[in-house]
Specification:
- The chain is built from ten helices and no strands.
- By secondary structure, the chain is mainly α.
- It has a single domain, classed as Up-down Bundle (Four Helix Bundle (Hemerythrin (Met), subunit A)), CATH 1.20.120.1770.
- Helix 6 runs antiparallel to helix 7.
- The N and C termini lie far apart (50 Å).
Length: 256
């Protein structure tokens, strides 16, 4: 059998390159889709708590607990994901970095504040009802994620925003900061999904249709959990995409 010619052999690589080009998605449309998905997650967790769980209050009842999932999804997942993607915006690749650093840290700080309020809501509910705190895997994972988040924010603030941090320290800590950024997001997603499942197990039993019969509330909440998982995976995928990363300041392309 005759060997394929150079032209025939190049068809495969050309087709592969063309397929990759067709699958390439611009960042801004992807970011718009991700923003819509994040808003949908927030709207759905609010609808779940309002329609099936009785709404919101600050009286220490179960309606006080309902602030917990809303604030956690909004802060620890959606707003945190937005903070993580700030440096993927093409406008951040040129000009001074300080405004974008401030935006990144402000979004992360806002996410942290909402997260702390969400923790306060669940502790207030447990204490008023005489329910023990920190006894489930969800609670351990959630509190561990928040503690790691606080350390991440404090270390990032000290390394990248304070003017006296040496350049070698920033260069050393940057990959660690990026790694733990993605790790915290996935831990946040895992905490939210496990919390949704735990709440359904506790709520759908006496006086309601059992969870195993998959009532409308279970379908709705499980769908919410899947959307939260998809949001987290897409954010991590965007962070890992090489073409969307900000060029290094000392690279040849950046100097040019």
């Amino acid at each position: 059998m005759a060997a394929p010619s150079d032209e025939e052999g190049a068809v495969g690589p050309r087709c592969h390159h063309r397929s990759l080009t067709m699958l390439d998605v611009p960042f801004l449309p992807f970011c718009a889709f991700l923003g819509a998905l994040g808003l949908l997650c927030v709207a759905m967790v609010g609808t779940w708590c309002q329609h099936w769980r009785g709404g919101f209050s600050l009286d220490g009842s179960s309606r006080t607990f309902n602030w917990h999932p809303v604030l956690m999804v909004t802060g620890l997942v959606v707003l945190y994901g937005a903070a993580a993607l700030v440096y993927r915006i093409p406008n951040t690749w040129s000009g001074p970095k300080l405004p974008w650093k401030v935006l990144h840290s402000s979004l992360a700080l806002g996410a942290f504040v909402l997260t702390v309020l969400g923790l306060a809501a669940v502790f207030c509910f447990h204490n008023s009802q005489g329910t023990p705190n920190m006894y489930s895997l969800h609670s351990w994972m959630g509190l561990g994620t928040v503690l790691l988040f606080s350390c991440q924010w404090a270390a990032g603030f000290g390394a990248f925003l304070l003017p006296w941090a040496p350049t070698w320290l920033r260069a050393l800590y940057k990959p660690i900061h990026v790694f733990f950024g993605s790790t915290i997001l996935m831990l946040s997603v895992a905490s939210c999904v496990s919390g949704i499942n735990e709440k359904l197990f506790f709520s759908l039993k006496n006086g309601t249709m059992a969870y195993k019969l998959l009532p409308a509330e279970a379908v709705f909440a499980n769908t919410l959990g899947l959307l939260i998982l998809i949001f987290g995976v897409l954010v991590v995928a965007a962070l890992a995409r090489p073409s969307w990363k900000r060029p290094d300041s000392d690279s040849l392309n950046s100097r040019q």
